[in-house]
Amino acid sequence: MHTLTCTTKIISKSTCKQKMSQFSVVLLIGLMMCGACSAQLSPTFYATSCPNVSSIVLGVVQQARQSDARLGAKIIRAHFHDCFVDGCDGSVLLDNDTANGIVTERTALPNLSLDVSAVADIKTALESVCPGVVSCADILALASQILVALDGGPTWQVPLGRRDSRTANLAGANANIPLASNGFTEVQRKFTVQGLDSTDLVALSGAHTFGKAQCVTFRNRLYNFSGDGNPDPTLDPTLLQSLRQSCPQNTGDSNLSDLDPTTPNGFDNNYFTNLQNNRGLLQSDQELFSTTGADTVAIVNRFAGSQTQFFDTFGDSMIKMGNISPLTGTNGEIRTTCNRIN
Ligand code: HEM
């Protein structure tokens, strides 16, 4: 750390004071930027300890997605649900473990349909080459990026170096993870709490460009939206008719529909043109565009008009989300098996 004093004879006292205040401003800006940049994570974190980490993860997920086209959707969703509960620390992966006082987060309502089974295969492959090195939290962050790219989406440099939690937080999972029925203000609040703004909210919701949702998560929009027996007026009538076929009024809770009915498996910006055409599947999706006066409307329009802008922002927002309160240094541990603490 530099120290400055005004005792030198070479410059006048007033010039020196001016320089000191300039220095303070630069220092302050530096500190403020560092607060937002999560300095300890780095894309090269495993450069010496596990240099092939990316190609090992790529190999496993390439194989796995041949039999599961939804793999990318499942993994990125798990990463999101991990990060929103006490930071990106792999807590969502822990199973019940009475001996260690762990109550799994996966019985929380938004987590009931999570499928994290592929993580074990990725971990096994990594343990055989770099034992005890790569965290489960980093596996979620890195596999998300690799799978998004494989599905046609953007690439970004994933900051790495997260460590894994030794605890889970079921109450936090129920409280922090947004529900489709939360309503725009509540969804926005849940993002703000995590340090994510409206641009992040819209960009990250763009992950609903692939994957599926169960009937139970949007049925109210089809039959009785406001308690008056009518469907959601912001749902396109043609889409309404087809969704009613796959999601009947009184049965079929777990029937699946595509989150992006236009290009269901590819990662692109059609999610945003869908919203412009009242073809968002979840209430939380459509409200980004249909909420009068919301600052998200212009952002939806921008991403609908430019896939490049969506892709660039998506990468930035994924990095921001991935930086939520990581465990680093000697905090937490590197789990040997992702579903239980060491
Ligand atoms: C903005 C608030 C959000 C809400 C309310 C929300 C809600 C939901 C719901 C209800 C489902 C269907 C789950 C089911 O049927 O069981 C879903 C699926 C999904 N969500 Fe979100 N989500 C949000 C944001 C995000 C974010 C930020 C991401 C990732 C960056 C994401 C990625 C996904 C993906 C990929 C799927 C499909 C998963 C699959 O096919 O298995 N979501 N989301």
From TrEMBL:
UniProt: Ca(2+) 2 binding residues: T209, D260, T263, D268
Matches recorded under SUPFAM superfamilies: Heme-dependent peroxidases
GO-annotated cellular components: extracellular region
Names of required cofactors: Ca(2+); heme b
Pfam families associated with the record: peroxidase
Cofactor-binding details, from the entry: Binds 2 calcium ions per subunit.
Domain (Plant heme peroxidase family profile) ranges: 40-342
Subcellular location: Secreted
Residues involved in Ca(2+) 1 binding: D82, V85, G87, D89, S91, E105
The protein's name: Peroxidase
EC number per UniProt: 1.11.1.7
Catalysed reactions, as listed in the record: 2 a phenolic donor + H2O2 = 2 a phenolic radical donor + 2 H2O
Residues that, per the record, bind substrate: P178
Active-site residues, as the UniProt record annotates them: H81 (proton acceptor)
InterPro entries (UniProt xref): Haem_peroxidase (IPR002016), Haem_peroxidase_sf (IPR010255), Peroxidase_pln (IPR000823), Peroxidases_AS (IPR019794), Peroxidases_heam-ligand_BS (IPR019793), Secretory_peroxidase (IPR033905)
Signal peptide limits: 1-39
Top-level division of the source organism's lineage: Eukaryota
Organism: Acer yangbiense
Site note Transition state stabilizer, residues: R77
Sequence similarity: Belongs to the peroxidase family. Ascorbate peroxidase subfamily.
Keywords recorded for this protein, A-Z: Calcium, Disulfide bond, Heme, Hydrogen peroxide, Iron, Metal-binding, Oxidoreductase, Peroxidase, Secreted, Signal
Annotated disulfide bonds: C50-C130, C83-C88, C136-C338, C215-C247
Residues where heme b binds: H208
GO BP annotation list: hydrogen peroxide catabolic process; response to oxidative stress
Gene Ontology MF terms in the entry: heme binding; lactoperoxidase activity; metal ion binding
Main localization, broad class: secreted
